[in-house]
Structures
1.
Amino acid sequence: MLDSAGTRRFVAAFTLTASMAFLASPARAEPPRGKPVQPEPAETAALQALTKGLKGKIIWSTSRDGNHDIYISNIDGSDAKPLTKGPKTDWFSHFSPDGKRVLFTRSKLDWTIETDANYPERWDTWVINTDGSDEKILIPNSTWANWTRDGKSILYSRGSKVFKCNPDGSGETLVDDADTQVKGALAQHPTLSDDGKFLALTLRGSGRETGILNLETHKYFTSGGGCQFSFFPNSHRCIRVNETGIGGTSIFAFDLKPDGTHGKIDGGEIDGKSIVFMDMPGRRSHEYFPRLSPKGDYLIWGITQKGHDHDIADYEIYLWKIGDAPEKAARLTYHSGNDRWPDIFFE
Ligand SMILES: [Ca+2]
Ligand SMILES: [Ca+2]
């Protein structure tokens, strides 16, 4: 039993701890450190078959050092090491088109959950060279930042608004306010097509849907549910996650009409033709974080066997040569910590 002074100390300590915990994380467990796991022989064979001769790097966000840092490795997952370090939450990393720099999102406080991406004041966009040098803040109070494919601009969100700026952070201009499309909506994961005509959006807040804004006509076309909407290099084909399929999710791919709209999606089909692009057979099939390679010939993404939380569940990173049988996709990470939001660069 505590005496009254002890009780006061306990209450004071508890109150301080609780208030710090509230600041750092609204009632969520911290991400798991996890531990390395051994590949199955079949996984090693698939990995070697797929990645033999491929030269380049992958990056992703992992919790394996007790917090989320950006890791970099060879394409086959070898020589994995931290590119960023520290107590903040680093995630959503992307290579510049020349492969020399990495853009990423960093929390202002320590461990911060991914759903807090709806609060831009809790994050900044940073940049670092792939050799680990010259790490610096680039865009304060921003989330979901990524390069446009030509590397001449960076696209990012602040709540409902989508902005564009120069690669050095200067010249900020408003691209869209998602509140115009759906009142009270927040703009997540904005992506610009290579021709600059279409903006793909995942809406959250009061709107929970994906859609494409035609920036020439200013017409908005909803694509239904799902999330993480982006384009193939040709601007007229896109992918997004859908909340259907084995393990509760799959990745759709479908063509766009010249005005940025598409046919009606009906049970994983458009006009009777399947648009299911990736839905891994077997127990590990909860797909998220799809990212196309710069030429649109490979898909890199994350999958869990169980669990959904983007920043806690045991996602592993996979790579697939588009057009191969899904079974030929290879697992690149072997670690029970959280591994999310990968990107790939080919030399
Ligand atoms: Ca699936
Ligand atoms: Ca993992």
2.
Amino acid sequence: MRTCMWVLALLLVFGFAWEVGADQNVPTERISGSAGDVLEDDPTGRLKVYVYELPNKYNKKILQKDPRCLNHMFAAEIFMHRFLLSSPVRTFNPEEADWFYTPIYTTCDLTPTGLPLPFKSPRMMRSAIQLISTNWPYWNRTEGADHFFVVPHDFGACFHYQEEKAIERGILPLLQRATLVQTFGQRNHVCLKEGSITIPPYAPPQKMQAHLIPQETPRSIFVYFRGLFYDINNDPEGGYYARGARAAVWENFKNNPLFDISTDHPTTYYEDMQRSIFCLCPLGWAPWSPRLVEAVVFGCIPVIIADDIVLPFADAIPWEEIGVFLAEENVPNLDTILTSIPPEVILRKQRLLANPSMKWAMMFPQPAQPGDAFHQILNGLARKLPHAQSVYLKGGQKILNWTAGPVGDLKPW
Ligand SMILES: *[C@@H]1O[C@H](CO)[C@@H](O)[C@H](O)[C@H]1NC(C)=O
Ligand SMILES: *[C@@H]1O[C@H](CO)[C@@H](O)[C@H](O)[C@H]1NC(C)=O
């Protein structure tokens, strides 16, 4: 009874405006992360990026072969390329560049069912680096320390979709000195290099916008989740998935009336998130999933169940204040934990989520918008400047080992 009463008390919601600042009624609050109040910074004038011109086979041709790459959760690599081509931070003079960008699409090799397989990515990457290091002097100057690469696949530049294999491979040796922009974020993991920029996965902005419901719609669902609890066939005997965290959600709360959880993916999925107070974001194969982006965009407080996760733009966004964090082993206490959060804390989280700058930071819209994920990436790169003198190698000095790594990676692409 007590629970029901305060759930009702929470049905008061704060909507959000898609247009930045369009709705004066939306209570906004400045959002500050560990790097300070940087979410709305404008990167223009703070860095210059040189975009290498590569043959189409590294990017456009790959996309032509499979246009589905524009819609999957790793599409940021394509949109970042397009964004940079017309960005005011782009320079055509490499001598004045702070950062070098190599447009290469490593996650656009899809199986018939649309699953990206990065098996060719290491060879492709090596081929591209060979090309830029032979045709321009800038790679050899730092061996990539002033270069960044967008590698959004599950385990980033480890280039394998299975965690054990990814760990065994490690980050591609040629990328050891580069800055990686990746979706994968887990602390103390060989596939997350110090200094990487963690980005949100891609969720199609137009599609989300098409499902917006009136801001004043009450949030009548307490906890919402749609997705698999067990393996790919949702078979409880099918092996260990999500380190058991999703199975624990199902087994503990399938009959709890506060929990609207199921494997069915309804057509009202996005609308349902806008009618919910808490949206579960448990780990899957990787610590993250597009659910995090969807929860934020739809103002549903993300309940993050993924030990050691590194969240997108974590130095610009105070995730602890916005979401709820739960250790994987604590899943059985999820109901108690959520129902004991004081209403004012929930309202504050909803208010932070209602800030349009939060939503833009999670999206890669076309055309780009101030403060969107593209701008957060650039701001992250700008905050790393100036480069330390030590990144510039002394005449002829070589650090990278071009023959390290699995022999199969050395074959020409
Ligand atoms: C960069 O160094 C490699 C050897 O490591 C060499 O083959 C290549 O020609 C150099 N690039 C330039 C532009 O001098
Ligand atoms: C480079 O890596 C290969 C393969 O692991 C190894 O045999 C070789 O000794 C390494 N070269 C140097 C200079 O470390």
